């Protein structure tokens, strides 16, 4: 199948318009910056503003206004004390609702009732598993991709361990002792979609075939929306449709997808999704997490079983303190457990304000495709003999991130990153030997991308020319 590289056509058109035909000419990067809006001035750039920051895939930068937004919450608390919950501007009791409209827009929910900002990513996955993993004697498996983010695997395995160890204990209590090796454990119920040998990404056809082959005994599919190491963005729409055709419920971890690619969760029919807000969403380290639940599940009567907490109560019932009654709040809000943090939600609201000012995900994604496409083409033109890009080349199969490996013998990615950091470039390394770089359309300029490639070129030339034993010691 032909790989679509629309950014190549768009960049060629812009080169023609500005009369700069050499992709590696810095003046082309400057011309591209003049034609594309950037919100760099609205963020605090590390190294006193000089950093080439390409690590948004790990932690987004701090919005400049965030300190004022957090300060407003602190001042309200300090001046109003307990009355800050229900009185004055932005009562804390309503703070969980302040971000929902913008979040719904970013993830493609039908409306704000399908989303909630709460807890952290791993905890939210546990909560969703408690509701959506409903095994039957026939359907008991969970499907996940190979090399999923380790925390996701740990969550899935620990949840399965609780379910099936309890089942084994019940069998023993009934006197139905099984022989050695007959007890079921978590690994018996986790199915892994593997890549083909020697390949860094998954083929869409292989995923669909896997779902067909294992559809009858699978209860839940839980995948990354965008893979953290390879940068591959999965066809969430096609995968969801294929899973549903087999009677499988579908959930996604969108940690690396939200704020990075356009999402249409309601339209795609996704059952649930969880994510964090500290990467592309720029809401700060350990920021509050997020959850999406399709309305078809929250409008059921009786309500779906869940692990409940008092803040998930309907508003009118929340402060009645009737422990015998749990009436869930409408939509995804009914999955909340504890009192939300006004401080954390102020950070998220500050970031969401910038997404709205930038024109939302359609505008940001349009620039992102061009920005990462420029990075790809510049690497291919300048460093094809030393750099291999393992992220898919088609823009619809990736977000901002490109994952790079190196063709220089015995050169470790960690060594490359160390040399880059010494020159003001901020990226990161992932096992086994990959550097991830992710230019954000919010604050990365085309000239930053150009500078990165030129610096990387110098670093790799120095590494290639250095004696092998020097590289091994490093």
TrEMBL record:
Modified residues (N6-(pyridoxal phosphate)lysine): 279
Principal location listed in the UniProt entry: cytoplasm
InterPro entries cross-referenced by the UniProt entry: Kynureninase, PyrdxlP-dep_Trfase, PyrdxlP-dep_Trfase_major, PyrdxlP-dep_Trfase_small
EC number: 3.7.1.3
Keywords associated with the record: Cytoplasm, Hydrolase, Pyridine nucleotide biosynthesis, Pyridoxal phosphate
Binding site for pyridoxal 5'-phosphate: 121-122, 149-152, 224, 253, 256, 278, 310, 339
Pfam annotation, one family: KYNU_C
Pathway annotation from the record: Amino-acid degradation; L-kynurenine degradation; L-alanine and anthranilate from L-kynurenine: step 1/1; Cofactor biosynthesis; NAD(+) biosynthesis; quinolinate from L-kynurenine: step 2/3
Subunit relationships: Homodimer.
Name of the protein described by the UniProt record: Kynureninase
Organism: Nannochloropsis gaditana
């Amino acid at each position: 199948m032909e790989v679509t590289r629309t950014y190549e056509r768009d960049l060629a058109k812009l080169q023609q318009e500005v009369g700069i035909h050499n992709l590696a000419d810095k003046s082309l990067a400057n011309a591209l910056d003049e034609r594309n809006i950037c919100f760099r001035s609205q963020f605090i750039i590390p190294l006193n503003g000089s950093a080439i920051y390409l690590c948004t895939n790990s932690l987004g930068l701090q919005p400049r206004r965030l300190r004022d937004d957090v300060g407003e919450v602190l001042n309200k608390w300090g001046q109003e004390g307990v009355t800050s919950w229900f009185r004055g501007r932005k009562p804390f009791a309503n703070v969980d609702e302040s971000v929902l409209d913008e979040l719904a827009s970013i993830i493609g929910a039908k409306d704000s009732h399908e989303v909630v900002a709460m807890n952290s990513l791993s905890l939210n996955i546990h909560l969703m598993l408690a509701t959506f993993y409903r095994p039957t004697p026939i359907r008991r498996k969970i499907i996940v991709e190979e090399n999923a983010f380790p925390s996701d695997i740990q969550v899935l395995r620990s949840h399965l361990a609780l379910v099936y160890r309890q089942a084994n204990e019940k069998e023993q209590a009934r006197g139905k002792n099984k022989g050695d090796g007959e007890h079921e454990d978590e690994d018996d119920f986790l199915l892994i979609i593997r890549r083909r040998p020697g390949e860094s990404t998954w083929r869409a056809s292989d995923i669909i075939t896997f779902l067909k082959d294992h559809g009858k005994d699978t209860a839940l599919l839980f995948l990354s929306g965008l893979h953290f190491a390879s940068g591959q963005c999965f066809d969430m729409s096609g995968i969801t449709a294929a899973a549903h055709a087999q009677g499988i419920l579908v959930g996604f971890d969108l940690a690396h997808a939200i704020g990075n690619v356009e999402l249409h969760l309601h339209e795609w029919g996704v059952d649930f999704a969880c994510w964090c807000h500290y990467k592309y969403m720029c809401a700060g380290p350990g920021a509050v997490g997020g959850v999406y639940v399709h309305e078809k599940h929250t409008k059921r009567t009786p309500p779906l079983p869940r692990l409940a907490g008092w803040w998930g109560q309907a508003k009118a019932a929340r402060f009645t303190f009737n422990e015998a009654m749990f009436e869930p709040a409408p939509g995804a809000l009914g999955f909340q457990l504890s009192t939300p943090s006004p401080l954390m939600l102020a950070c998220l609201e500050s970031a969401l304000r910038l997404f709205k000012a930038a024109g939302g995900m359609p505008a940001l994604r349009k620039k992102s495709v061009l920005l990462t496409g420029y990075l790809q083409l510049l690497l291919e033109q300048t460093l094809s003999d030393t750099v291999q890009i393992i992220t898919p080349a088609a823009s619809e199969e990736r977000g901002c991130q490109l994952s790079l490996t190196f063709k220089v013998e015995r050169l470790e990615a960690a060594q490359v990153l160390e040399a880059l950091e010494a020159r003001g470039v901020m990226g990161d390394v992932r096992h086994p030997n990959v550097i991830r770089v992710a230019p954000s359309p919010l604050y990365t300029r085309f000239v930053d991308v150009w500078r990165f490639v030129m610096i990387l070129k110098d670093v790799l030339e120095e590494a290639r020319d250095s004696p092998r034993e020097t590289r091994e010691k490093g």
